[in-house]
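Support reply, case 0932

Customer input (verbatim):
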Amino acid sequence: MKILLTAFEPYDHWSSNSSWEALTELLRSRGVPSGVVTRRYPVNLDKLSERMNKDLEMGFDAILHMGQAPGSCAIRLETIAINVAGLTHRPGGLFGPIIEGAPIGYRSECPYEKMSSELNASGIPASISYHAGTYLCNAILYLSHHWHATRGKTCPIGFAHFPLTLDQIVEAGRDMPGLPKSELARGIELMLHVLRESTADQPRAVLA
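Our regenerated output:
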């Protein structure tokens, strides 16, 4: 099984990104998992789209994107990707679509229930979420689904929002929730295990 596993580079005032920290910890401690292709994407919509589209041409049986969610106390498994691009903390205007004329949204067919159950049973807090925001975390989930939909292809595509690592909290000097990056790395390993065990032939649902 061939899986694309992605994380984001640092953004805003953060000097690191918990998704990338967790991924590099996984690679450092366990090596590259069998059948997995890893990528670190830029926090720029145009560059992200260009690089990811090239990667998707390689063909994958499953895709798991990861990003950072400061303030979260659990791994959030994002179910819905919407065709909206903007920053919710900059109000005052109507956000435009990611792609003009494209479907309003896609729903992930990743086995989130099993992922959440496995993570929680292993002592790693996880929950299923229905709003990935309107910035790049949402965009990468939407664009991945749309790329496959427009080519008549199907595969489970998911997105996991990670809490901050403990190192990031110390660096920020703020009282915020977080998890050790070793635990986040173990979480990635568990999610990959569930993906491998799941079937990859379920149809993708489009929101009308």
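We compared this against your earlier run and they match. Two observations from our side: The chain has a mean pLDDT of 92. The first strand starts at residue 3 and ends at 8. Please reopen the case if you see a mismatch on your end.
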